[in-house]
Amino acid sequence: MEVFAQQGVVRLSGPEARDFLQGQTTRDVRRLEGPTPLLFLNPKGQLEEGATLFPTPEAYLLAPWGSPEGLFSRLQRYIVFDQVRLELLPLFYLWTLEKEWLEEAPQEALGPGDWARFTLERGLPHLLDLKGELPQVGGLEALVDRGKGCYVGQEIMARTEGKAVHHRLVDLEVLSPAPLGPLFLEGREVGRLKRVEGKRARGVVRKEVPFKAELSAGEGRFVPVGEVRWSGRRL
Asked: Is residue 29 scored above 90 in pLDDT?
C-alpha cells in the first residue's frame, strides 16, 4: 500500500480560533471530531485550498492538501483583529487511500509529487485540478455544510444549492500536448486544461461535451474519456 508524506502542518490556536475557522471553511467546525476534510473558498465560491483537520484540546491542526505555505497564507490573509495565532509546524502529514495521520519522524514514504501522479493514474481528483472551480465541479458537495452560517464563499454556495453546475472534471487522453489554458470544441471554448503529465491529462469541460470528442488547445489535441468525482478522501 502506497504511503505519501508532506512536511508542514498549520497550527491554529488562541481564544477565537474556533470562531475564526468557522468563518473560513465550508464545514461546521463545532461538530467535527477526528480527521475531517475541509474546503476553503474565495468570495466567488471557488476552491482556494483544502486540508484535513485534526482537532486537539489546545488547537486545530490543519494538514494541507496543497503547499503548507499556501494554506498558511490563505488563513493569514483573513486575520484582522481576531485573537488567533498561526504557526507552521515541522510535523509530517501522512496518508494512504484509507487513512490520514500526523507523525514527527515518518518512515520511508512517497512525496506530494508522487501523489499528484498517483491521482492522475487512478482517476482521483487532486487540488491542482479543482483550484479556481466551484466545489460541485468535482463532486465535493458533501464538504459544504448547508445552513452553518457565514463563511467566505457562503453566499455563492447558498445561491447554487440544489442547482446543477455547467462543468465537470474529466480525464483526458493526450493526442498532442499543449500548455495549460482554454479548451475548444469546433472553435467554441468549452473548458480549461488543468494538468498534463505525459499521455494523461485532466480538465474541466462543459457537461454537454461528449466523451470521445476531440478538443483543441492551441496545437494540442485532447479527448475526454471519463468523469472524475471526489472519492470521499483528501484531494
From this structure: yes
C-alpha–C-alpha distance, residues 45 and 66, integer Å: 18
Long-range contacts at 209-218 (CB < 8 A, ≥ 24 apart): 209/185, 211/170, 213/185, 214/175, 214/185, 215/172, 215/183, 215/184, 215/185, 215/190, 215/191, 216/183, 216/184, 216/185, 217/178, 217/179, 217/181, 217/182, 217/183, 217/184, 217/193, 218/178, 218/179, 218/181
Residue range 41-46: mean pLDDT, rounded: 97
pLDDT in tens, 174-225: 999 999 999 999 999 999 999 999 999 999 999 999 999 999 999 999 999 9
- The identity of residue 179, as a single letter, is P
Report pLDDT digits (tens) over 130-166: 999 999 999 999 999 988 889 999 999 999 888 889 9
* β-strand partners of 101: 94
Q: Cα Rg for the chain, rounded, in angstroms? A: 18
Alpha-carbon distance of 218 to 205, in angstroms, equals 16
User: Is residue 78 classed as helix, strand or coil in its secondary structure?
Assistant: coil
Helix (H, G, I), strand (E, B) or coil at 157: helix
Give pTM, 2 decimals. Answer: 0.94
DSSP state of 210: P
Q: Give the CA-trace dihedral at 170, 175, 179, 180, to 10 degrees.
A: -10
Q: Round to whole Å and give the CA distance between 60 and 90.
A: 15
Give 177's contacts (C-beta < 8 A, 6+ positions apart). Answer: 196, 201, 220
Collapsing DSSP to helix, strand or coil, 156 comes out as helix
